[in-house]
Design goal:
The protein starts with a strand and ends with a helix. Helices cover about 35% and strands about 30% of the residues. With about 350 residues, the protein is of the alpha+beta class. Strands 6-5-4-3-2-1-7 form a 7-stranded mixed β-sheet, sandwiched between helices. Strands 14-13-12-15-16 form a 5-stranded antiparallel β-sheet. The protein folds into 3 domains: about 5-120, Rossmann fold, CATH 3.40.50; about 130-145 and about 215-345, 2-Layer Sandwich (D-amino Acid Aminotransferase, Chain A, domain 1), CATH 3.30.470.20; about 150-210, ATP-grasp fold, A domain (Dna Ligase, domain 1, 2-Layer Sandwich), CATH 3.30.1490. The protein is globular and about 60 Å long.
């Protein structure tokens, strides 16, 4: 039986470059080489593309660019191929294990669509929509999914000091288009909010100011299985920090995961319903992770969606799929199979 060729993209220009390396390592280590021909393409922080040949450990350690064998890659739009050393690279499927800007925001997906190369995950339009937290919240409200009260502040409004924020008490200020909790601050009062907006707007041209919600942070993995979106059990994250920031998420040993979440069965079922509602409303495909806040009174608020969730050893998405019976190897098989099924029609 002829092997399927899979191209794993990793690295990228976003602030989540390091997370991508860790996710890609987990994916590459799990791929069944008896089924797949593997091509590893690393993207540097400057946006240069290379076909990498070397041990996967070099990717995890961030040494792939300096210690591995790397061949520059070009794009041939006429023949719709990737070119490596003058030869065509035509993978059957691309797995963009990229997070944040230039990898999760629709740009890499649009490039692959132009080249007519099938890939895992949401299409370019859905990816761009899901990347923008403000737009997602608008879709949620239209879909009757509750959201936390929020205010949108643009860079122009911030610089001209014409924005208004009438939210009382503690708030979270976050970039509208970013991931991995980069640029998020907790603030109270006009002075702190102004400083926090300055931080958030370094990562995105638009920022959100949201009322702080005290409660559980819950996540649902949604995955297409045989063409149908399936919601996982609800997972819960707990940690010893003011909020789930980048440092806590990826460098703290104090983060704990509970599957299922410590909320009622009825509340978990409603989280799963909202996750599926948002999956379809946002035009998602393949996979995503939906995040919610759940208060002590079990009020549920949609927070955000991640169309290319982390695949690291400490990432919730693969933990939730493992609960469904898919270890990492089986999960890669599932995602590849569903992407090829969508290609065929």
């Amino acid at each position: 039986m002829e092997k399927t060729s899979i191209c794993v993209l990793f690295g990228g220009k976003s602030g989540e470059h390091e997370v991508s390396l860790r996710s890609a390592y987990s994916v590459l280590e799990a791929i069944d080489e008896s089924k797949y021909i593997i091509h590893k393409i690393g993207i540097t922080r400057d946006g240069e593309w290379y076909l990498f040949k070397g041990d996967n450990r070099l990717i995890l350690e961030g040494k792939w660019q300096t210690e591995g064998e790397n061949t520059p890659i070009c794009v041939d739009f006429c023949q719709k191929h990737l070119l490596v050393g003058g030869e065509n690279l035509c993978p059957d499927i691309v797995f963009p294990v990229l997070h944040g800007a230039f990898g999760e925001d629709g740009r890499i997906q649009a490039l692959l669509e132009l080249l007519e190369i099938p890939y895992i995950g949401c299409n370019s339009a859905s990816s761009a929509l899901c990347m923008d937290k403000a737009l997602c919240k608008g879709v949620a409200m239209q879909s009757f999914v509750p959201v936390v009260p929020y205010v949108v502040v643009t860079e122009r409004e911030y610089k001209s000091n014409t924005y208004e924020c009438d939210l009382e008490g503690d708030v979270f200020v976050k970039p509208s288009s970013s991931g991995s909790s980069l640029g998020i601050s907790r603030a109270r009062g006009a002075e702190q909010i102004e400083c926090a907006l300055g931080v958030a707007l370094r990562h995105s041209p638009t920022a959100l100011v949201e009322r702080a919600i005290e409660g559980a942070e819950c996540e649902v993995a949604v995955t297409e299985i045989k063409g149908k979106a399936v919601a996982s059990e609800v997972g819960q994250i707990s940690y010893k920090a003011d909020f789930y920031d980048y440092e806590t998420k990826y460098h703290s040993s104090a983060v704990k995961y509970k599957i299922p979440a410590k909320i009622s069965r009825e509340c978990r079922n409603l989280c799963k319903k909202y996750a599926l509602d948002m999956f379809y409303a946002l035009g998602c495909s393949g996979l995503c992770r939906m995040d919610f806040f759940v208060t002590r009174d079990e009020e549920i608020y949609f927070n955000e969606v991640n169309t290319l969730p982390g695949f690291t050893s400490g990432s919730m998405y693969p933990m939730l799929l493992k609960r469904q019976g898919y270890d990492m190897t089986a999960l890669v098989d599932l995602l590849v199979g569903e992407a090829l099924r969508r290609k065929e029609g």
